[in-house]
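If you are new to this repository, start here. Below is one unmodified record pulled from the training split, so you can see the exact layout before writing a loader.
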Amino acid sequence: MARRGDPKPEALRRTGSLNRHPERVGDEQFTPGGFFDPRDLVQVKYEMVRREQVDGWAAARAARTFGFSRPTFYQAKAALEQGGLPALVPRKPGPRGGHKLTEDIVDDLERAVGADPSLRPRDLAELLRERFGLAVHPRSVERALHRRQEKKRR
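And here is the target side for that same chain:
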């Protein structure tokens, strides 16, 4: 479906908004070369939710027609209600921030460094494994301590 010289697929890919399965979109408005583009994930999800909200379609029908599961439909609906169109742009996968390195853990790391300034991030990561059973990369320890220092400077 990609047109020769069409920059849109690459732009969508860069933002994480490229629909990996445009062929699953079965809504009659999404025709090749038309205004509605089945490759545009944000547009597809918006129209899916609009069909349910405005046109009165059942959630299951809307999800199926646009190539998604019902849970994905409900996630898109909630995202749209809470944050508008920008909330439909996919976020990068994976954890957000140091979810293992809580404030209490970083406090403990600071105390350890205060008691022995020669400790390196590798030593601190080992300390966390021994004390708390946490497997943390030394670079994560280094970043957490750096964030804490930056926070104190402000």
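Two things worth knowing about this chain: Residues 8-88 form one domain. The CA atoms of residues 93 and 154 lie 30 Å apart.
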